[in-house]
From TrEMBL:
Descriptive protein name: Fe/B12 periplasmic-binding domain-containing protein
Entries under PANTHER family matching the protein: HEMIN-BINDING PERIPLASMIC PROTEIN HMUT, VITAMIN B12-BINDING PROTEIN
Alphabetical list of PROSITE patterns matching this protein: FE_B12_PBP (PS50983)
Source species: Hydrogenovibrio marinus
Alphabetized InterPro entries for the sequence: ABC_Transporter_SBP, ABC_transptr_periplasmic_BD
Domain Fe/B12 periplasmic-binding: 35-296
Amino acid sequence: MQVMTMKNMLKTGFATFLLMALVLLYSNAMANFHRVIAIDGSITEIIYALGKEQSLVGRDVTSLYPKDAEKLPSVGYMRSLSAEGILSLKPTLVLATSDAKPQSVLKRLKDAGVHIQIVPNTYSIDGVKQKILTVARALNDESAGEKLATEFQQKADKAIALAKERVSQHGERKALFLLNARGNQLLVAGTQTRADEVLRLAAIQNPAAKDMQGYKPLTAEGAIQYNPNYIIALQTQMSEQHLESLLEQPALKMTSAAKEKHFMVLAGDDLSFGPRLPEVIRKLSDKVYGQIETNRTED
């Protein structure tokens, strides 16, 4: 009888242990499961790079990369969010940068029980690394975040080193980054803009940076004074054909860039400051400095 009791105790103990193990596994699985809405193209890109895209149930309109992200339901523009649109997707987690607005919508989401994680959005190499680590932590996969951040840093170091090498070989080149406002009024990027920072990382001088912060109207006198070797714009703002036609404007016509027809249009998400930033640095460097190398090879 005592033996049977011991057997029963062992069986009961094992069953209890097994049940606790299953509960623990379930709890861990639930902790790692989220219905995520990403609000900022860079956050969406990071989630895909981490291999966590299966957790996404929605995104904002700036989330253009990778292409599959556009298949997700959109909650609109990050600076004019609607609580109803977000709540309809039943998220458990909203990952957003500090650009997400209005605050009243974020408060309403919190009141509805949705966890809101605001991700720092500093436009720099270190800023992107911190974004990667923050998003990975929110998705309970810090090891994947550390791996991606390390790979990102290595690629960035190589792209920046190549750009600096080209400067030492050919001298520093100048470029203006333009936006097209209403009535074909051109705005030029100064300091404290993503455009200025990405030009700096690509070792390209932004001559407007010494005179202004943010985006300011470009005058003909200013364009002649700056005399850029290249004009750069965003695809969401203008096509290559449109930009080429703008080179005939008095504000640009007398510049070296206009005379040599040196211009480029970046993809709309190239300034998102996500994991592909090293590729953008390389693309700018290849275009602005690679043109010199091509010309010298042809000579």
